[in-house]
Model the fold of this input.
Amino acid sequence: MKWKKFRLTTTEEAEDIVIATLAECGIEGVEIVDKAPLTEAEKQQMFVDIPLQEAEDDGVAQLFFYLDPEEDYEPVLARIREELASLRDFTDIGSGAIDISETEDVDWINNWKQYFKQFTIDGDILVVPSWEEAAEEEGSRLVLHIDPGTAFGTGMHETTQLCIRQLKKYLKPEDEILDVGTGSGILAIIACKLGAGHALGTDLDPCAVPAVQENCEANGLAGRQVFLSADGENGSAGKADLDLLLGNLIDDAQVQECVGRDRYDIVLANILADILVPLMPAAAAAMKPGGICILSGILEGQEGKVITAAENAGLETEEITRQGEWVGVTCKKP
Done:
């Protein structure tokens, strides 16, 4: 089915009032596209392993809405134009131009799956989408079934692969693992399948909860979400291979208490350099003496500040690895 797609050009400052006007005209949903810079609070919520490429803000906003092509949309547009003209009497709404096009009714949530196929990491790990089956001849490889859903992490990105290589190198049987910014749970799940005794993943994004639980199930692991009680203790009962805790390890004392101190043999963090730097004190505190911290998500040229932050937190640099434009830093707690 094709829908009529309407693009209304306005200003960032007028976004809210124009959207309210559209609602009064019967438009129930609006997509906003602008170049307004993210706030610091918004950036802190984005634990991702790709750099933010923010374009220069030009103050222009594009508002998109959709109408059923079988309906007579001309009266709706006429009323919208009339209301926009009234708005101009007391505020600047920019051009106010409305462009019309058609768009297909597409399942955007699942359409990306056609581009995500099986692939190997270093020849010994086979990553298989949850909707596909591994070939029988792949039995000698470690097979990872993964579906990121709307959480980050398929294993295709260079930063994830930098972490996986170091994980394979340093992991010992029954190790305790902490995966900060776990996303889909891919690093923690690989750790469990390689022999770790238990993994705890933390994340800020609620989308990580169903992603981790479903990926654990697909890989034959027991996964659960753990919660904080008023005194900071784990409010969940039972045994799991991988626990998931929503919260910010950097500055949330309850999260830090639940994660614990001197508890983990390996700490993983595949985030961005600007997040890794303030993370280092809490990450170091969580590590056992002799523990390993594997850091990635660092663009070439930014590794210096991460190394400095790690050393200031009492860690020693063990190894620096590279892939493409990305750098991995592996540290040890004396």
